[in-house]
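User: Study the fold:
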Amino acid sequence: MCVAPSSHVCVAVLGATTGCFNPPYSSYTGGARNLTHVTVGGPTSPTLTMLDIYAGLTKAATVDVGTGVAGLACATGAESAFLVVGACDGQVHLVDGHMRSNRRRYEQKVTAHSGAVRAVAASDDGNFFATVGYVNGGGGRCFGDHHVCVFDARMIGRRPVQIQFAGGGGMPSFLQFLPEQQSPTLVVASGKQNGGVQIMEPYGDPNYSSFLTPSLEQGEAMTCLAISPSSNLLAVGTSHGKVRGRAERVVAHLARTYLWST
């Protein structure tokens, strides 16, 4: 993996396939967030590794969540930070964001899917997190779960809101919360060839959903999703090595007229 806060730095972390930036507790000053660390993990190891970016990516802490890691997101509120860890056993672990040496354990966990978690996302204020994943079909078989699960981190014991993905037969593969929204709004994309993007409001109108179809070439599939901090640009990367998107504010009421460009 490589990180470039001020200079290009690379370090090898065996088996790491996912990661996220996260601030330690000491980085909070009046609600400001200074991203000084990155945490990585992977499906072949139960260990999360926190690296100090400004100390040459040296190991700052580790924590064992008991199973392989499939997805990571950092939830950063005004006074705290925690990691949302999507695990290969279908559970989501909420881990102390600064992973202090005297707290080498997960703080809470909840089951999201009967199969492995594929990806996780957290809202800007740290109040909500969402997952996509797989269904355990028995006999060692797993199928894509067509539901997106949305949790309220303040009431972790409650059942999640489950929203059916309208992805034209493809399972939801990538997701991200829109920044700075009064009501949490999710953008979810399918990794299937010629798949689409759906905008969801889990705690808004339960009947609202808007499905967008990027202009993909024959056999082209989305491989990642990104939204600018201002929500002015929604972009997807594709299996043909392209980035597709449009510089227009990505809010739910504009979704039906959203256009795509290469």
